[in-house]
Design brief:
The chain is α+β, with helices and mostly antiparallel strands. It contains 15 helices and 16 strands. Helix 5 runs parallel beside helix 6. It is globular. This is D-alanine--D-alanine ligase C-terminal domain-containing protein.
Length: 530
């Protein structure tokens, strides 16, 4: 464990991601020397975007139109999700680090285009610090899918390759949690309760192809993009109640996913980017592995063949970016599951038989897909976790996302338009009544915290992350894991992120929290080089 003196002699570098994708009309990235008060390369208003007042308009506009344009802020969902309150969050993080006793703190802009050069520069600085007996830790805040034009996994791999301590998920946890179908297969293999689902790479031709899925899962269902964040591409229409709605929503969601990939593809191709595949010494390598699947079927969830262009995923198949080297991992997860079932008298449904995954052309390729699962109409919870199996996993008190009671039974979900209603890049804080964060029932806390920890460990969770959970009914404690989010939003002001609300609810002092993140980063790196 790093000593106290080592930690407080640590220099902190905060990575601030910039996009390579086109920005909305009328906006630009300001140079470092333009309207930059503190020299961090960020604009004071929103951290990246500013109205391009030098932009020449081909036609004159009326006074009324000019007024409307002055108030214009981008409504592009990806820009909003990535840029909302980013500078405030980074400045707040800097304040908490200063409160924790750190003095050498810098914000480092990084993009997919500059990632290699930036990390090489940080590596050189880290070596110089170590020569003087000091450390350098990077706050790795790049959480893009990279298809959205924002850096993510490639930065993590570069940091690992250069042996730089950093906060957040390692490359294995980062990637496995990026795809919802992949992470759900891992959860099922570890006997962590998550719903049966079917993944679609192509849309069914007609409703007849959906009959096996309907028989196995039943309505209502929800259609989700396989790779998404911040409720992107989730709408109220995502919840479906009929065969016709299901077929239509699969088609609409797939079309949207394919279009998103096309929009991002040209920007990435222009950069000639390729995945950083070289693993650093001590980093868990990715190899083919097959976990022993559950083979039993239950009356509620019978085995069923996949539809053409789809796969019913109910246990883990192999994932080329996730390797569990020992069967003891599965056994341990199953043991945790049995203990949880015994202690809290929770009903865990037996999972149906495994079916093969969709065939992708390459291991690195992210083929656009959507998946369908049962819509759970009960309560929704989110749990924050820090650490790993070696350092120890801390599970903070679980928060309930308490939806407006005026909402209907099938409207209580984080759909994009409702979730982001009222938020903008000028600091609008949205509709507080839509969803509030409350302390989950005390009697439910043990079960919720245990399943969150099981899910986190099943994915080899490390750094920090969030586990989203639902129940089937409002008054039944039968938690089902929806997903695990590595590198969830890191901020501390009320309503700025789920993490912020959980820490406030649990009365956790932010300086102590960031100190833990740094301690874990140093411990993880020391463990890797041994």
């Amino acid at each position: 464990m790093p000593s106290v003196s080592t930690i407080f002699q640590t220099s902190i570098r905060i990575l601030r991601s910039l996009p390579c994708r086109p920005l909305p009309p009328g906006f630009k990235i300001l140079p470092d020397d333009e309207d930059d008060d503190d020299g961090d390369g960020l604009t004071p208003s929103n951290g990246l975007l500013a109205i391009d007042t030098d932009k020449e308009e081909p036609d004159q506009v009326s006074t009324e139109e000019e007024e409307e344009e002055e108030d214009y802020m981008p409504t592009d969902p990806i820009t909003l999700c990535n840029e909302f309150d980013r500078t405030n969050a980074i400045n707040d993080l800097r304040r908490q680090l200063e409160r924790a006793g750190f003095t050498d703190i810098e914000v480092v802009p990084i993009s997919l285009r500059t990632a290699k050069a930036v990390v090489e520069r940080l590596s050189k600085e880290a070596r110089e610090k170590r020569r003087l007996g000091h450390e350098l830790v990077v706050f790795q805040l790049c959480d893009g899918t990279e298809l959205d034009g924002y850096p993510g996994l490639s930065v993590v791999r570069l940091l690992e390759k250069h042996g730089i301590p950093f906060t957040g998920a390692d490359s294995g946890f980062y990637r496995i949690s990026n795809s919802k179908p992949v992470l759900k297969r891992v959860l099922q293999a570890a006997n962590v309760n998550t719903s049966t689902f079917q993944e679609f790479l192509t849309a069914p031709k007609d409703t007849l192809e959906l009959e096996p899925l309907i028989a196995a899962i039943g309505f209502p269902m929800i259609v989700k993009p396989s790779i998404s964040y911040a409720s992107l591409n989730i709408t109220m229409a995502s919840v479906v109640h009929s065969r016709e709605q299901l077929l239509e929503q699969i088609k609409v969601s797939l079309d949207r996913a394919v279009q998103d990939n096309k929009d991002a593809g040209s920007a990435l191709a222009a950069l000639s980017l390729s995945p950083a595949s070289a693993a650093a010494p001590g980093v868990t390598t990715i190899s083919d592995a097959t976990l022993t699947p559950n083979t039993g079927a239950s009356p509620d969830h019978p085995s069923m063949p996949p539809s053409p262009g789809s796969v019913l995923s109910t246990d883990l198949a192999t994932d080329d970016d996730f390797s569990l080297s020992s069967s003891t991992t599965t056994a341990a997860a199953a043991h945790h599951h049995q203990q949880q079932h015994h202690q809290h008298h929770l009903h865990y449904r037996q999972q149906p038989q495994l079916q093969p995954e969709p065939q992708r052309q390459s291991k690195e390729e992210e083929v656009p897909s959507v998946f369908v699962e049962k819509f759970l109409a009960g309560r929704e919870f989110t749990a924050l976790l820090v650490g790993d199996e070696d350092w120890g996993v801390r599970v903070y008190p679980v928060a309930e996302r308490a939806f407006d009671p005026k909402l209907g039974r099938y409207e209580r979900l984080l759909a994009f338009d409702q979730y982001w209603d009222g938020y903008d890049l000028q600091g609008g804080q949205g509709n507080e009544d839509f969803c509030r964060y409350e302390y989950a029932r005390e009697t439910w806390q043990p079960a919720l915290q245990q399943i969150a920890k099981n899910a986190y460990l099943a994915l080899h969770g490390n750094g920090y992350g969030r586990v989203d959970i639902r129940t089937t009914e409002m008054d039944v404690c039968d938690p089902v894991v929806l997903e695990v989010n590595a590198n969830c939003g890191l901020s501390f002001e009320k309503d700025s992120s789920s993490m912020a609300n959980i820490l406030l609810m649990a009365q956790i002092d932010p300086p102590g929290f960031v100190h833990d993140l740094i301690e874990h980063a140093l411990h993880r790196q020391m463990h890797r080089v041994k």
